[in-house]
Amino acid sequence: MNPDKIPSKGSVVLAANHLSYLDPLVILVSLKRRPTFMAKESLFGVPVIGAFVRTFSFPVRRGRPRPSTFREALDRLKSGGLVVIFPEGGLSADGSRLDAKRGVGMIAAMSGSRIVPVLLDGTERALPVGARCVRPAKIRVTFGDPVEVSRRGTGRVYHEGITQDIMKVIEGLRRGRTGAPGGHRSLTSG
Fold this sequence. Notes:
Layout: E1 12-16, H1 23-30, E2 36-40, H2 49-56, E3 57-60, H3 67-78, E4 82-85, H4 103-111, E5 114-121, H5 123-126, E6 140-143, E7 148-149, H6 156-174, E8 186-187
Parallel strand pairs: 1-4, 1-5, 2-3, 2-4, 7-8
Antiparallel strand pairs: 5-6
Helix pairs in contact: 3-4, 4-6
């Protein structure tokens, strides 16, 4: 863990890989700032878990997010908030990586917020998809260097490019790299 990578104030998007339902809780306890998670709509009605989700999240309709979802994220970032996004948008049944959605790139570009990439490792062993109980496992959370995103670009291709670059940074964290591809600390191309 290296939570000092997260700016102590100002708008920040945390972009993390997603391995387990434990991921939001692990990120929450790793931070010194209060985050807001973007969480799938159906979790808000789940007993017990729903209370946590309602306290720390706002809903996202998967597949076809509403414009109000993006407005909510942008409003929270304009207020200097910290918004956590799982770019993959869900969990795979076998723990493999899913294709990332462009939302993280779009929100970061529209808000001008920095993105802090986050690598989670071990939560898939502590609470695999389909498991009912948490198992003992070593969990590691690695925060990468904050990445600046240019607000000059727009459009689907630009936003998808930012998202793919962030996913590469997250994969690089697994190999011990903390910065953006090529050693750059900013993403300006799509």
